[in-house]
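Write out the bound-state structure for flavin-adenine dinucleotide.
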Amino acid sequence: MIAIPTLETDVLVCGAGIAGLTAARTAQEAGARVVVLEKGPETGGSSAVSAGIVWTARDLAGWLSVQPGGDPTLGKAQVTTYPEAIEWLRSQHVRLEPFEFGASGWNPPFPYAAFQLEPKADGRSNPRAAMDRLTANIAKAGGRILTETAIREFHQDAAGRIIGVEARGPSGLLRISAKATVMATGGFQGNPELRARYFGPYSDRMVLRANPYSTGEAFQAAQAVGAGTAGPFGRFYGHRVVAPPAVVDFPSFPRVHLGGALPGAILVNLRGERYVDESESDEVSVHALPHQPDALGVMIYSESDAATDIGSAALETVRSVGTEILEAPSLDSLAERMSSHWGIARVPLLDTLAAYNAAAAAADATMLAIPRAGDLHPLTQPPFYAIRFLPGITVTYGGVRIDAFARVLDSTGRPLGGLYAAGADAGGIYTRGYAGGLSMGLAFGRIAGREAAASAVSP
Ligand SMILES: Cc1cc2nc3c(=O)[nH]c(=O)nc-3n(C[C@H](O)[C@H](O)[C@H](O)COP(=O)(O)OP(=O)(O)OC[C@H]3O[C@@H](n4cnc5c(N)ncnc54)[C@H](O)[C@@H]3O)c2cc1C
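---
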């Protein structure tokens, strides 16, 4: 029988996106020996293919304004450690420039602080360069980084403390014993079976706009050794993504989504019914979409949106990836075309349009079956247009339960011992709205790395 090779370290980090790389480098700086496992062929994860804006709320009040019922201790941990974490990233020779979202697209609905990772001459970020820098720093300080190596299960001692993992690498199974372990594998959005469990009957139609490796092995393995979970599991960070025949993949994901740029538009499902308050921002209203038939939505807008600077810029990027846009001189003929081309129920759609325009003309949102809190503009200026879209998922919001020290808790709220989580693996941080994914990974990566090292190297 061939023995399974075994490694030994102080701190083991599973996952090498911003959360894992930050945790690993932080633990090293605190004196710990570090091993990093990365399932993909290279480090960086979704962090490396993101738009590279590290941002979050300036204070807890802003953070809580989009997280109803959210845990203030986690929010506070994120927003209060963020400024130090940005300075720390600079100390790693990662270039960060202040960033304004500006009027040309989506803006956070609260005062925010934002920085762009490694801005290039064309104005875009280079998050890959930032992740490569962190990776090089870890390697230079003696850290071992094992790519194409995925955690499969956690090992416990008799007291239940996590003392290492079993992983699968290119040469087969591998055991790593560690005094402390950080899970930072980026959530479970790449796992269609888990998506079906949490996001509803049409979740198979969700478009993955993230790295393909985050399939929830660590999440499931942690539950198997007693980790508690924290939701909301039905919510996620994502955007509307234009439907085929449009081809939307990397690197077009950060640019091409039907964000909140068309304030006069309405959204309907295959039944021709409005299904959500369109004035909610895109990353919140998208949560309702996997529950609609075939997870399909249609955005209907008029020339008054299309002709604005914001509208025309957004539509130009959408057109550039081959999106099918139906156009018609009247709402009647648009409904006819939507029915014959896409199978949208015509008569209910006409009822929906009439009811919407009546409510908008009366400036009375209470006339609508599905409320609309803002932007109640009638659809009256021809031509009229329609675009189909699907829910795009970037990261899950549900995950293992943690406290403000990034310790993984069991279902009774007690630390499991020896296990920490950071980034998208940590559940219960965002409950509804979104306040930055990179900042969440960075802030909790710092906390997890520091705490894991303290528990591993303390006498
Ligand atoms: C197109 C796009 C644009 C975005 N733009 C922004 C933005 O501008 N600002 C912002 O704040 N957020 C943005 N985000 C979201 C942000 O990128 C994520 O929230 C963040 O990167 C999550 O960091 P993480 O470290 O938790 O996960 P990741 O960066 O995904 O890292 C997780 C790593 O774990 C690895 N892994 C998975 N399973 C295993 C396993 N079993 N064993 C070992 N390793 C494993 C994965 O391969 C991956 O490398 C964007 C995301 C995308 C996809």
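---
The CA atoms of residues 247 and 321 lie 6 Å apart.
The mean pLDDT is 94.
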